[in-house]
Design a protein that fits this description.
Distance between the termini: 51 Å
Bound molecules: NADPH dihydro-nicotinamide-adenine-dinucleotide phosphate
Number of domains: 3
Structural class: alpha+beta
Strand content: 5-15%
Largest sheet: 7 strands, antiparallel
Number of helices: 24
Shape: globular
Oligomer: single chain
């Protein structure tokens, strides 16, 4: 089958420019998409990319030029190379991105480990290299000199005036699934399917864009759709019992009419509208998200701190004016039901919205073709109403700020129920700790743009329910529990718990900020001391600093904080420890999801990272 009239034909061997560099490697053309005007090409290591025509060269002319090139370079040429961040790419063709990574990190490795690393990395055949300045700093000079003289160098460097591009520019290239993702059972995108002729079929069968099914696949989706709301109901009903324990399973169900309260629904709608209004007000920074597969970068109004400040003032004004916020405590079940209803309606809307989205706007997961699974997982990556980003809004605003409002209401309810003049120490600690967590998240709101939820997950029931129902109605369980289960704390205990919280917070904040800063500007001078591993996508991985201690230092900090949230509630019941237990499960699962995703994205470079940073979350333990 011949492709539409385009310069390069399917099956043709050409030279493709490697993202983020001025290097060209032999690639095979797999297809052409007339819509995006991109060629799908495959490199020798199986990496598939989408390239613009201007990044492809005819192989014949290229070889002639390469052969005729004198190795005694002109000063001009030398200059050009020394400017290029990709200058180390004049190395042997047997060196891979991972090999360079190994060279970069081997300096500090014992020699036995070096040999093993070298053996591992030299086995891969492709050598597209793109190094950040940090990575270059780490590169082995000896290696460079040796390879300078390697006239048998098979890598062709195209001497163009095009300067190497910064890492972030790689957004214009679209990395596809690697061949070696063998064990999964995704519906693979066949390159031919991307040809214009098949474009309609591809659009009609978005399953082609899918990755391995998560959360137990299609059967799992049914399970979670039923289990998650049932679990929220269970814990909400437990929190009010005198003896909240698993022995009370199933909890006594209230009559059906008790679930519903129109006023509660009105309250929730007002709250969401207030947050939406604060979100669209033109205060605060407009931040750019990470590049999408199209190269586009969406803008987000990151004014979360402003939103929580106004919300806090509104809550204070309400109390001052005599509004009884303990209503939130006494109508917890009805509020949860109303919010659940809204999350279901929103998820249905999101599913329908996604049916009108371009295939390029769909997330890699959540497009299995199975309605229930896709409804659960979310099909569209960034559903928007004009500039109003629904996923970002739900992730950061009504639920997260609502969490603090509920906690505050629980403190008022505790004072009322326990006849106290001020909330108990336990209640104050829980309120302050969780408020700090939320305020920090909103202050650093931009950082959410580099997280999995924003970058990879589609927006469907899983996130809508999680953001709107799960977070505000289960993360508040400790405060809810304390209203009717006082747990007096001694001052030394208060001090110890605060210290624990601060340690967790420090690890959490520092590690998240480090990665966020690196992803936003890999050549940030403040990060130049860190070692990195270049990957085939053009992005690098941090391999020292916080991300060299464990693979998810941010999860470690988060878990320590979770412990500090539960401790104020004592050990009489399991219920306030629910968050801790749930969070361990969530983060362990999230870590494994992220591991598979990163292995898919980064291939051998990721394996190299895992070999270097052995533990996932807890040093020397897990
Ligand atoms: P991360 O912020 O850890 O993001 C993972 C991504 O970071 C990877 O996919 C990869 O993306 C990049 N990455 C991984 N390793 C490296 C490395 N060595 N160098 C550079 N980049 C790397 O994941 P989450 O989104 O899960 O978590 C964000 C925060 O949110 C965490 O602190 C977590 O604890 C918290 N969280 C809290 C929850 C709660 O309910 N309280 C729920 C979930 C998360 P790429 O390479 O594509 O940039």
């Amino acid at each position: 089958m011949k492709m539409p009239s385009v310069k390069y034909q399917r099956g043709e061997m050409v030279m493709g420019r490697w993202p983020g560099s001025s290097l060209y490697y032999e690639v095979k053309v797999l297809g052409y998409d007339t819509k995006s005007q991109l060629y799908t090409v495959i490199y020798k290591d199986g990496t598939e990319l989408e390239l613009k025509e201007q990044d492809i060269r005819n192989i014949a002319g290229f070889q002639t030029r390469s052969r005729s090139r004198s190795r005694s370079r002109s000063p001009g040429r030398r200059r050009s190379r020394s400017r290029s961040p990709a200058r180390t790419t004049r190395r042997s063709s047997s060196r891979t991105a991972a090999a360079v990574a190994a060279a970069a990190i081997m300096e500090s490795a014992p020699s036995s480990r070096r040999d093993a690393k070298l053996k591992d990395t030299l086995e891969v055949r492709l050598s597209p290299l793109q190094q950040t300045s940090a990575a270059e700093n780490n590169s082995n000079n000896k290696h460079e000199k040796k390879e300078e003289n390697n006239t048998a160098n098979k890598v062709n460097e195209f001497e163009s005036k095009v300067e190497a591009e910064p890492e972030l520019n790689q957004g214009r290239y679209n990395l596809r699934r690697r061949k070696e993702d063998g064990d999964a059972k995704p519906v693979e995108t066949k390159p031919e399917q991307l040809e214009e002729k098949d474009a309609k079929v591809a659009a009609a069968a978005p399953a082609n864009l899918s990755t391995p099914l998560d959360f137990g696949g299609k059967i799992g989706a049914y399970f979670w759709l039923l289990f998650l709301p049932a679990w929220v109901l269970f814990v909400v009903l437990q929190g009010d019992l005198e003896d909240p324990s698993l022995v009370n399973f199933p909890p006594p169900l209230p009559p059906l009419e008790e679930f519903w309260d129109a006023q509660a629904l009105g309250f929730v709608i007002l709250w969401v509208l207030l947050q939406a209004l604060l979100y669209i007000l033109p205060f605060g920074k407009l931040s750019e998200g990470m590049p999408l597969s199209s190269g586009e970068r969406l803008k987000y109004r990151t004014n979360g701190f402003f939103a929580i400040t106004v919300s806090a003032l509104a809550a204070a004004a309400a109390v001052y004016l005599g509004v009884d916020l303990t209503y939130i405590h006494s109508h917890f079940l009805q509020l949860a039901t109303a919010t659940f209803l809204i999350s279901v309606l929103l998820s249905a809307y999101l599913y329908v919205h996604s049916c009108y989205a371009e295939p390029a706007q769909l997330a890699l997961g959540g497009n299995s073709g199975n309605v229930v699974y896709d409804f659960f997982k979310g099909r569209e990556l960034n559903p928007r109403i004009k500039n109003f980003d629904l996923k970002f809004f739900c992730e950061m605003r009504p639920g997260l700020i609502g969490w603090c409002l509920i906690n505050f209401a629980m403190a008022l309810a505790e004072m009322k129920e326990q006849r106290l003049d001020a909330p108990s120490y336990s209640m104050i600690l829980v309120n302050l700790f969780q408020l700090l967590y939320v305020v920090d998240g909103l202050w650093n709101e931009e950082a959410i743009l580099t997280t999995m939820d924003l970058m990879h997950d589609g927006f469907g029931f899983m996130l809508a329910f999680g953001d709107l129902v799960w977070v505000p109605f289960t993360y508040t369980l400790q405060a809810y529990y304390l209203v009717s289960h006082p747990n007096p704390l001694s001052l030394p205990a208060v001090g110890a718990i605060i210290t624990l919280k601060l340690v967790g917070f420090y690890i959490f904040r520092k590690s998240n900020s480090e990665k966020n800063a690196f992803r936003r500007n890999p050549s940030d001078p403040k990060l130049s001391h860190l070692k990195t591993i270049p990957t085939a996508t053009g992005k690098s991985l941090l391999v020292s600093g916080w991300w060299g201690v464990v693979r998810h230092p941010n999860y470690l900090g988060d878990l320590i904080m979770a412990l500090a949230w539960s401790l104020p509630c004592g050990f009489s019941h399991l219920l306030p420890w629910y968050y801790m237990i749930y969070f361990i499960i969530l983060l362990v699962h999230r870590d494994s999801r992220d591991m598979s995703e990163c292995r898919r994205k980064y291939g051998s470079a990721w394996d190299e990272y895992c070999r270097t940073v052995r533990y996932r979350i807890i040093p020397r333990v897990y």
